[in-house]
Amino acid sequence: MKKLLWVAVMLALVAGPALAQEAAGGNPTVVIKTVKGEIEAVLYRDKAPLTVDNFLKYAEDGFYSGTIFHRVIPGFMIQGGGFNRYYSQKATRPPIRNEAANGLKNERGTLAMARTSAVDSATAQFFINLADNTPLNHGVRDYGYAVFGKVTRGMDVVDAISNVPTGPQGPFPSDCPRSPVIIESVSVK
Question: Which domains does the chain possess?
Answer without folding.
Answer: 26-188 (2.40.100.10)
